[in-house]
Amino acid sequence: MAKVLRDEDLVDGALMTVAIDALETAFLARAGNRLISPPRHHVSFADRGDLVFTVGGILGDKPLAGFRAYETFEGVEHSQIVAVWSADDARLKGIVLGERLGNLRTGAIGGLAIRHLSAPDARTVGILGSGAQARTQLAAADAVRKLDRARVYSRDEEKRTAFASEMQHALDIEVEVAGSAIEAVDDADIVICATTSQTPVVHAGDLKPGAHVNTVGPKTYRGYELGLDIADAAAVIATDSPEQTRAYASPFFLAGSGNDSRMVDLADIIAGKATGRRSPEDTTLFCSVGLAGTEVVVASAILDML
Questions:
Q1: 71's torsion region: left (phi>0), alpha (psi -120 to 50) or beta?
Q2: Domain 114-287 maps to which CATH number in 3.30.420.40, 1.10.10.10, 1.20.1530.20, 3.40.50.720?
Q3: Contact 293, 56 (CB under 8 A)
Q4: What's the CATH class of domain 3-101+293-305?
Q5: Cβ(109)–Cβ(291) under 8 Å?
Q6: Tens digits of per-residue pLDDT, 153-203?
Q7: Read out DSSP for 64-78?
Q8: Residue 231: predicted pLDDT
Q9: CA–CA gap between residue 293 and residue 265 (Å, rounded)
């Protein structure tokens, strides 16, 4: 009988490593043209919002197929549905309900970028934002690097203080509260931007030489959380889905800048088809846009584990 998992089933910290390892396999499959990941599809409900669908899976010895559906309606409670089938025998492996899986998947993709683009000896993290995405991004960074310290800033003092306390306890590393964005990223080896800001909260001059940056928040012409000068300074710019950067209703924030033509697929870096970091002094940038279909791969790995 198919399993049904909910958010309360996905709280084990060990699941981040499971998700990262599953996505490493998925990105290698993408580089080998064995990952099914078409861009997401939106169905509009007038002024109420959208239903959004992604379909995906992986080909090979144990082929998977599935979908994710979520909404953008106004409301207090938001939920998602991810269903996974075995493409070998049409067996429904299970369904995952809630928001946690999506956050876990996005965090794990960020962790892959940190694994393959940040300096191998990276020990410190500056975090801008204190929501769910910031939490999973930091957890993923800790899963792939031996972190000593993190520093967090967000506009809400109460939320950033709660973030620091919670994540210090969860990860057993020092997590400090910063008084400004500049203070948070000062001398950080890894910078995580997971805000809702429509204007840049950090610029190239705020970063130490050799820093790696993950941007998870807004990144279209309508608004973007990173200064464009960070892309100018970056020796490597990568994304999880070049197709998705071209599918936004509003153009991608780097479109037409010249830097968009330098952007490479993270899958190609992981597979050794494209060059990543060359020098300890290189600034590297990862633009997370959400590789469609990867929720199916993560859900399958978790269903196998639980």
A1: beta
A2: 3.40.50.720
A3: yes
A4: alpha beta
A5: yes
A6: 999 999 999 999 999 999 999 999 999 999 999 999 999 999 999 999 999
A7: EEEEEEEE--SSS--
A8: 98
A9: 16
Reported pTM: 0.94
| Cβ–Cβ < 8 Å for 217, 225 | yes
Distance CA 268, CA 289 (A): 16
Burial of 152 (0-12, 13-18, 19+ CB in 10 A): buried
What are 125's two structure tokens?
């993290």
CA distance 234 to 91: 45
pLDDT tens digits along 4-19:
999 999 999 999 999 9
Give me the amino acid identity at 69: A
Sorted by where each begins, the domain ranges of the chain are 3-101+293-305, 114-287
Q: Which amino acid is at 265?
A: D
Helices (H), the chain: 15-31, 100-117, 132-144, 157-171, 181-185, 228-233, 242-245, 266-270, 294-305
Strands 64-71 and 124-128, by their bridges, are unpaired
Helix (H/G/I), strand (E/B), else coil: 82: strand
Q: What are phi and psi of 6, to 5 degrees?
A: -125, 175
Question: Measuring CA to CA, how many Å separate 5 from each of 14, 58, 69?
Answer: 16, 21, 15
DSSP element (H, E) containing 153: strand 149-153
